[in-house]
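Board notes (copied after class):
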Amino acid sequence: MDLQTMTYIVVGFTFALYIGIAIWARAGSTKDLDVAGGGIHPVQNGMATAADWMSAASFISMAGLIAFMGYGGSVFLMGWTGGYVILAMLLAPYLRKYGKFTVPEFIGDRFYSKSARAVAVICLIICSVTYVIGQMKGVGVAFSRFLEVEYDTGLYVGMTIVFFYAVLGGMKGITYTQIAQYCVLILAYTIPAIFISLQLTGNPIPQLGLGSTLAGTDVYLLDKLDMMVTDLGFKEYTTNVRLSTINMFAYTLSLMIGTAGLPHVIIRFFTVPKVRDARSSAGWALVFIAILYTTAPAVAGMARLNLIDTLGGEDGQGLVIEERPVWFKNWEKTGLLGFDDKNDDGRIQYSADKEVNEMVKVDNDILVLANPEIAKLPNWVIALVAAGGLAAALSTAAGLLLAIASAISHDLMKGIFTPSITEKTELMASRIAMAGAIAVAGYLGLNPPGFAAGTVALAFGLAASSIFPALMMGIFSKGVTKEGAIAGMVSGIGVTLFYVFQHKGIMFIPGTAFLGDTPANWFMGIEPNAFGCVGAVVNFAVAFAVSKVTAAPPKEVQELVEHIRIPAGASTALDH
């Protein structure tokens, strides 16, 4: 069976499965829509959380970034997984004990202010909209290649699928859909990795294959890769940091605390029955996530090795243009891969030297999807990868859109502007808000600002600078006031957005950079996508400073903080 037919069958089956689950688990109340009725088992919730969080950036883009950045790409591995430890230890159980539906609702109650709740909604929408751009880019990349349709058409199909299972099913439908999507994406990621690891090293375990010798030789895979990239003029693969050590630290920290502040992930911990289940869910999610994240470095290294080897041609002097493989020609059609025969020698010479005939475009986001084709794996494996990439993008997009819809219907309408609306009206408003959010996400997907993981990293930075500090102070500090919290969130996200706009331009308007996106103009050499941790420091500092000069929180609010953080009877036990 040819690749396109196989891909249509596999992807079509998975889409039918997702929509079927959504119809089966259709939401009948706002509680079903927002938090799945609060009855999801921790293992199920951990799997759904893993799918919710492992987005197109994780599946499609992260390994591509590691493949081209080498050691510097480890910021994504350390930051995103480390953030889950913070989430499991410092946020998830306490927020579940509080027991309400959304993050803005907690912030509004803890800081005894509808204004604080409204600011939290705005921050949530900014973070989620930025994040969803990367998912839509992933949908477009996957569709444009494997279903052989235009990028725009792929997005419209993806939007339709999300509309059906997110709007109809709500959080309950999304939860069970994401469990299915996790199974699809993890199989799609690991099966090709096992095949390729066997091909290159004879070891079926990719994590071990990365550190093994190449089959039939005594040369280690990473040593060979280092030699190949340096021969082409690139920096060494295994030791090259991302710009600077300070930047690596800032990037990792920003991703960590951004993970812990992501609203669409946090809302998942309101879906389990008990407080201890929230911590258990975070632990299970980390287990499920680790399967992909420990495989990603192997996928990246092996994909880079195969790419360089293929482009070297049979004689090592460059790939003859007329002899370029089918996968190369197919990706050329998408516009995500290209070359320029500068010296008219009829060869593609992949090199860091800009003066020679070279590859002029290799989009980071294509490498994981192209990797099975480069390695000449069976068509069913290639089709499975397409389904996995779409599952990763669609699962996270659905979670983000639900978070946006809940913030608008539950926090803005029900919580602030129209508190007297019925549950039926709120449910309808949530679905309308979600449909509107899908339309906005589709527009942003048609006009993406950059590669998926870069856009997602910015979203993590925005969450790190706004939502994470507010949650931490809300749980662990009784003295932070409503004025302090509002000032902190506004200043944190404000300084981060200002820094990004100054150095990268307003992301939706090309050519608006003011100072230029160069390390010489960056604060302490920290790139814009890594600036979220600095914004978080500003948030904390401003919040505590303003709280010092404003009236202390009411007694009942301080008691609320103690109730959230300290188990009932704990102080009495300690006294004795």
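Comment from the instructor: Residues 211 and 221 are 7 Å apart (CA to CA). The two ends are 74 Å apart (CA to CA).
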